Amino acid sequence: MLVTPWTRFAGDGLHGRYPVVTEVLVDLGTLFSWPPNTPRRVAASGLSMSGVVRGQLHGRLQDVDGRWYGVCDFDLPYADGRRATIRCIDQVVPFRALSVPAERVQRGT
Q1: What's the CA gap between 105 and 77, in Å, rounded?
Q2: 58-90 b/e (C-beta count within 10 Å ≥ 16 → b)
Q3: What is the pTM of this model?
Q4: According to a count of CB atoms within 10 Å of the terminal CB, is the N or C end of the chain lower?
Q5: pLDDT (tens digit, 9 = 90+) per residue, 92-108?
Q6: What does the alpha-carbon distance between residue 51 and residue 60 come to, in Å, rounded to a whole number?
Q7: What is the secondary structure of 54-108 as a DSSP string?
C-alpha cells in the first residue's frame, strides 16, 4: 500500500493506526481514453478497458497544477467474460475517473 502525505489514518497510538480505505468506482473509459479517429484492432480475448469497476482508494496525491489523483487498487476484466481479472495495485488515477458508489451516498458514509 502506497502511503501519501494525504493518506487518512484511523486508530490510535495505543491500538495501532491503519490507513482508511474508501470504496470507489473507477471509470475505465475516462482513465484509458483514446483520441478520436484512432484505428483499433479488436482482440476478443483482451482486457475490457471501458465501463466502470469497483476499486479501493487508499491514498491521495496532488500535482504541481493543483489536480488531485487517487492511489487505488482495482481489477481489470477480460472482454470475453472469463472470471479471471488482472489486479492493478497502487495505481495513480485522476480524480475525474473516480466516483463514490451510489449505495455509499445513500447511506451517507
Answers
A1: 25
A2: bbbbeeeeeeebbbbbbeebeeeeeeeeeeeee
A3: 0.82
A4: C
A5: 999 999 999 987 655 55
A6: 23
A7: EEEEEEEEE-TTS-EEEEEEEEEEBTT--S-EEEEEEEEEEGGGEE--HHHHHHT
